[in-house]
Structure formats: structure tokens, C-alpha cells
Write a structure and sequence with these properties.
The protein is an alpha+beta fold and 267 residues long. It has three helices and eleven strands, in the order αβββββββββββαα. The radius of gyration is 57 Å and the shape is elongated. The termini are far apart. Residues 210-233 have a biased composition (Low complexity). Residues 7-20 have a biased composition (Basic and acidic residues).
């Protein structure tokens, strides 16, 4: 049997235990919150920063290029002209072969006029572009001036033609009788007449003229004793023709004129 004072103490102990349990729960919650807060700070410190967004100045992107669109005339910046020679040392009588290439480096197909008189190789004595350079030959001089040659070049398309130079001079109109070339340094370049500013790199060549071979001697005798002269041979022949026909050393003419013994006898 419990006394009245003990019964009064029990509710107080129960309230104390509940308070203690509550404090313990609050402590655990505080620890968890502290751990979460510290972890959040650590994540914030170690998380990589995002890159700043790229701001474009263009309001609208460019329209895509249609390589099959209707062809327009080629622009100077779209064309690349090349020139190559099969020899860089030129001698008389040996033609030089040039290879001319025309490439479309633009993004779309284009049209270009490239006849022989328009896409021409020109040779100069001296350096191309120098005031002292002399124009000596061009593939346009003797080409058909009425020729038409329209090319449709797609992106990266290349047109190739061959041109031959026979180491001679030429003038516009292809007039004959031009003077011969002289030895020295020559340069060649391709230009496109219809589009200004389109030209190839310069090809440099050396023109050499062989030394003349030795001529035969004035006497005309290829070999033998050069001391023998034509006059000596002629005198020997004259002496031989003047010798008498007789073998006894007497003059045959005097012997014929000598009277015989019977000439004094009368018949």
C-alpha cells in the first residue's frame, strides 16, 4: 500500500522524464540540422560554377547556303588561277608546256567566261610588274578572238587547259617576222581578262642560247699537211708538162727539123 506522499511524487518524476526525453530529441534534431547546414556549406564551396551564357550579337542565324541554287557570275575572291611549266630552262627549238588551272573556291556554283584569248599566259623578259619588263609573248595574240567558252564551276570544281610556247615572240594580231629572243631571265603569268584582279603566281624561267660550233678551215681540207699550197702544186704540174718526150734528153723538135742524108740527092 502506497502512502499519499509517494503517490504525489510519481507524477512529478514522470513529467521530469518526459522533459528530459524532449530535451534529448531537441538535441538530436539540433545535431542533424547542424550537420545538414555544414554539409550544405561544403557542397556550396565545392560545387563548380556554371559558365556564363554566350550572348550572340546576331539576332537571326544566317540562312544555309544552297549549292544547287541558280548560278551567278563568279566573284574575284571565289576563283584561284594556277600556272605550272614542264621546264624552267628554255632552249631554242624546244617548246615549253604550260598547264593552266581555274578553281572555284566559293561555297556555290558560279559562271565564268574563260576562252583562250581571255584566260591567257603571258611571258615577259624580266620580272612581271617591273617597269623594265618587256612583254615578248602571249597565248592570246594568235588565239581566236571570237571564241566563247562559258564555264559552270561548282564548289571546288577545277578546269584545266594546256598551252604551248615555242620560244618565239608574238604581238597582238599574230603578225609574223618578230625578232628572236635573247638569253636571259623570263617570267610567265596567267590573267583572266573578264575579271580584274584574278591572276596566277609567277613562273620564272631561264632562256639559254648554245654557243655556235666551230667552222671548217678556209682551205677546205679536213686534214693533211697544211704547208702544201695550191701554187706549189700548180708549178709542179707545169714542170711536168714541159719535159721532152724523148728519153735521151734531146729536144724532139730539133730532131725533127734536122735534114736527112737523102735530102741532097736529086731524083
Amino acid at each position: 500500500m502506497v502512502s499519499a506522499p509517494e503517490e504525489a511524487e510519481r507524477p512529478q518524476d514522470h513529467d521530469a522524464e518526459r522533459a528530459s526525453a524532449g530535451r534529448r530529441r531537441l538535441g538530436r534534431v539540433a545535431v542533424v540540422l547542424a550537420v545538414l547546414a555544414f554539409g550544405g556549406v561544403g557542397v556550396a564551396l565545392t560545387w563548380p560554377e556554371t559558365d556564363a551564357p554566350i550572348v550572340s550579337d546576331k539576332a537571326n542565324p544566317p540562312n544555309p547556303v544552297d549549292p544547287n541554287a541558280a548560278a551567278a557570275p563568279c566573284e574575284p575572291g571565289d576563283l584561284d588561277v594556277g600556272l605550272a611549266a614542264d621546264r624552267l630552262t628554255v632552249t631554242p627549238g624546244v617548246p615549253v608546256g604550260f598547264t593552266v588551272s581555274l578553281r572555284n573556291e566559293g561555297p556555290v556554283q558560279c559562271l565564268v567566261e574563260a576562252p583562250a584569248h581571255g584566260l591567257a599566259v603571258t611571258v615577259y623578259q624580266g620580272e612581271v610588274g617591273e617597269p623594265t619588263a618587256e612583254r615578248v609573248w602571249s597565248s592570246a595574240d594568235c588565239a581566236d578572238q571570237e571564241e566563247e567558252r562559258l564555264l559552270l564551276l561548282g564548289p571546288d570544281d577545277v578546269d584545266t587547259t594546256d598551252v604551248s610556247w615555242s620560244d618565239s615572240r608574238s604581238v597582238p594580231g599574230c603578225e609574223a617576222g618578230q625578232p628572236r629572243l635573247t638569253a636571259g631571265e623570263y617570267t610567265a603569268q596567267v590573267t583572266l581578262a573578264d575579271i580584274e584582279g584574278v591572276s596566277s603566281d609567277v613562273v620564272r624561267m631561264t632562256y639559254t642560247v648554245p654557243e655556235p660550233s666551230g667552222s671548217p678551215s678556209p682551205s677546205g681540207s679536213p686534214s693533211g699537211d697544211s704547208s702544201a699550197s695550191p701554187s706549189a702544186d700548180a708549178s709542179d704540174d707545169a714542170e711536168a708538162s714541159a719535159e721532152p718526150d724523148g728519153t735521151d734528153g734531146t729536144d724532139g723538135t730539133d730532131a725533127a727539123n734536122e735534114p736527112s742524108g737523102d735530102s741532097d740527092k736529086k731524083p
